[in-house]
Prior knowledge:
The protein is mainly alpha-helical.
Amino acid sequence: xxxxxxxxxxPAFSQILRRxxxxxxxxxxxxxxxxxxxxxxxxxxxxxxxxxxxxGFRDGLIVMNSRLDSVxxxxxxxxxxxxxxxVNVQSNEPVTETTNTNADTSNQSDDNPADAANNGEIExxxxxxxxxxxGLPPTLSNIGRTGTFISGGxxxxxxxxxxAKLRAFGETSRESENAVEAGLAWIAAQQNKDGGWKFNFDKxxxxxxxxxxxxxxxxxxxxxxxxxxxxxAFLGAGYTPERETxxxxxxxxxxxxxxxLKHGTENKIDGSIDFRDFPYQQGMYSQAxxxxxxxxxxxxxxxxxxxxxxxxxAQGGVNFIVKSQDIQHTGGWRYTPRxxxxxxxxxxxxxxxxKGAAEAGVVVPKPTLYRANDFLDLIQxxxxxxxxxILETEKIHSYGIGRDSRKTCTALGNLCRIYLGWQPGExxxxxxxxxxxxxxxxxGRNECNIYYAYIASLVLHHYGGDGWEEWFKELRDHLVATQxxxxxxxGSWYVPDHYSDKGGxxxxxxxxxxxxxxxxxxxxxxxxx
Length: 529
């Protein structure tokens, strides 16, 4: 009987629930808990970057395991049906920043900008108010801007016929073309068993006995950068991932692109793809070079489904570049997303990637390019002829960035201007190009600033006019003469340099090959050919 009395004293669960719901305080408290729980869950989901699932190539045909499956598996899917929208991360609301734009450099003569700064030769004062981030045409220059890249400069010259014509014309030579092929053979021998490349040479990592025995391996940890720049060297000579085209290195490019596609991390919220495998080791370089490899491959392949799949992945990579721009202060890019201030080297590679993307039909937002023009306005000096590495509030170049850095920065700035629409006849561009011609390719007895040589060669190739043939012949013959003939290093290059040491022999060889490919690597924008 006692048990029955206890049962009667216990209210039914429904009664407890009803009383709890009838209580205003408890009901409000429960609602608050539920609301906060939902918000926390949504924030967690939005912050998760979901791996893309990867992709691969099989006998020249891309095999996707991600949301792009339909691009290659459904015969009814055309390349026009693939549409990955650019990420919308930049507001058009004005953000006003007071930034240094006035640098007195009339007395600068040292190759290293840091030395000039330490001598007080480059002074910087805040004299103008600069709006960065409004997404409107900037006002610091009277040169018209459209928010788009100049059309042209595509990859249509990368074929056997055009390479033969250029050799007959005298722009390339039999020796330089042999050097390209020897360089590519060496790069192919360094490919790792998983399809990617490394800057360092780990023994038994490749299918070639040369890997692990070559000298001057690099130290930079990014395999994405190593793989991407290797792919670019093959693409520059016209070798695509399609076996049907008779590409001699189709399998190397096929496996390299497969590896690269597997190593992008996709954010399902905004459609961006992060290719930075070492985000804090100058990761935005890796991002840009990966996107450039994807868009050039997309522009070159014949198969519509492969083209569309590569372009879609490249669009995700461009989306990440767009949202990584420093929209609050300078309009440039640096090592990590939104890092400020931007520098001309990282910014240059982002613009090279987006220029290639635009040629491949990938969307690049206009506000992104307006802000990039803002950045170039901020870092140019010497009446616009030259460009600094980075903008600082008190003094430009307070630290050294390597040999011949002033000249490299100037070449990068002028290349960006050409891509963004400046044409021969614009005095500021003309004066910058003349300065590069005066500097020559910077060839020493046993060394060459290979980074500067590549960028400056692109500037003169696109610009045209007097000086290009002489410039390139001098550089071309120097590279042919300095290509290694020693054992496992045969076919490669190594140039001791502040930057080149990080990428080592693989980086040097890829850039040297790309320099020798310049006459047919991109169709010239302005010069007649």
